[in-house]
Amino acid sequence: MAETTQRKREVFATKNELSVALAKYTAHLSAKFCKEKGIFTVVLSGGGLIDWLCKLLESPYKDSVEWSKWHVFWVDERVCSHEDQNSNYKLAMDGFISKVGIPKENIYAIDKQCAANGNAKRCATLYEECLRNLVKEKILPLSPNGQYPQFDLQLQGMGPDGHMASLFPERPQINVTDKWVTYITDSPKPPPERITFTLPVINSSLYNLVAVCDDNTDQCARSIAEIFKSNNLDLPAAHLTAQVETMWYLDKAAASLL
Ligand SMILES: O=C1O[C@H](COP(=O)(O)O)[C@@H](O)[C@H](O)[C@H]1O
């Protein structure tokens, strides 16, 4: 793996302030990559993140971001129909993507039929094939070590237990390095069947940003403290790095134990 980066963090008084900063960060990178290479490859998670992207749907971003140059991927996906309330694709489509002008062909969802059939292993294989084809088409470059696809920006949340994507504590998927996309059939958080980028793919991104807002149960705050104060690698999110910048955006509650 090429050089990786130190964790940076910013703490915001409110979720609203975090959303404003998240929009600014994303729009800045969108402009930079669209100018430099004509496209912007963005990876999304599910969860609260999609709500926190709301400021991108407002002025000045809604009209100034070059949405037609975006290519959108999912860092993890639940193996269910695209219409299911559990689907990360549906969440992002309903709450974000359908409201901006990203071309349909630039939206790379989990295979519709395979997901509806509930075959997690096959869904992971097909999603990896999709990424490999995009490497061949030169939409995605490979990381400097030539082993993994490299995205421009990955935006994700973190679960209260310290999971990121569908890499959970006490599950073996965090150790997978010979695949780009793997699967889980016993996720501790429902639904049990999911696919997920593997850790080396996640960490090959140029920019990685994790947004965490605690719901005042202190669970996220405890995981954040384990990551930032103890570097507790039992928490999958503690393994996050990036090739250029690893940024954590925390609300006051999530940062309360730092
Ligand atoms: O199950 C998932 O959880 C994480 C965190 O979600 P949140 O609701 O705690 O914000 C999410 O990033 C992931 O994509 C999703 O599948």
From TrEMBL:
It is an enzyme of class 3 (hydrolase). InterPro entries: 6-phosphogluconolactonase_DevB, 6PGL, Glc/Gal-6P_isomerase, NagB/RpiA_transferase-like. Residues 14-248 form the Glucosamine/galactosamine-6-phosphate isomerase domain. It catalyses: 6-phospho-D-glucono-1,5-lactone + H2O = 6-phospho-D-gluconate + H(+). It comes from the Eukaryota. GO terms for biological process: carbohydrate metabolic process; pentose-phosphate shunt. Pathway: Carbohydrate degradation; pentose phosphate pathway. Pfam families: Glucosamine_iso (PF01182). One of its GO terms (molecular function) is 6-phosphogluconolactonase activity. Its EC number is 3.1.1.31. CDD domains: 6PGL. Belongs to the glucosamine/galactosamine-6-phosphate isomerase family. 6-phosphogluconolactonase subfamily. NCBIfam families: pgl. PANTHER family: 6-PHOSPHOGLUCONOLACTONASE, 6-PHOSPHOGLUCONOLACTONASE-RELATED. This is Probable 6-phosphogluconolactonase. It comes from Brassica carinata. The lineage of its organism: Eukaryota, Viridiplantae, Streptophyta, Embryophyta, Tracheophyta.
